[in-house]
Amino acid sequence: MTGEAAQVVRRLGLWEEMVKREQPVKHGVKVFGTSGVGSWYVPVSGRDKDWNLSPSTTWQVRRSDFDTMMLKEAETRGATVMRGTARKPLLSDDGAVRGVTVRWPDGKSEDIETQVVIDCSGSRQPFSRTNVPPVRNILVTMTNRSPSFRK
Asked: What is the pLDDT of residue 2?
């Protein structure tokens, strides 16, 4: 997890939950070049309110555990979870994503238009191989200014 992502986790008040789950703390990462010979260290950084970088820490997370924690937190904060699969993005004339087509477990499809689409599902899904920003398993939308979380 990046330093920026860790700051979001902290702002959400989930620091104690991360400690409770015994997620290993990271201070940086050693990066190896493509040949495997050269390497360098990248420290974890965060930004303050003025956008200045400062040393920080983050966590090494098991995605299945972390994603479940975040989904439960979203539900706790009022999100509605609806099971379905995002099939394709809905694009505006300028190419911006304006929503997705979702296939529900009963096989029916529905177009969902929204102001914001956030892909939270990782890189091994169909849209990751397109030039369109991916939208897949967990979809966060903002419609009528109230959040809706779909999984």
From this structure: 87
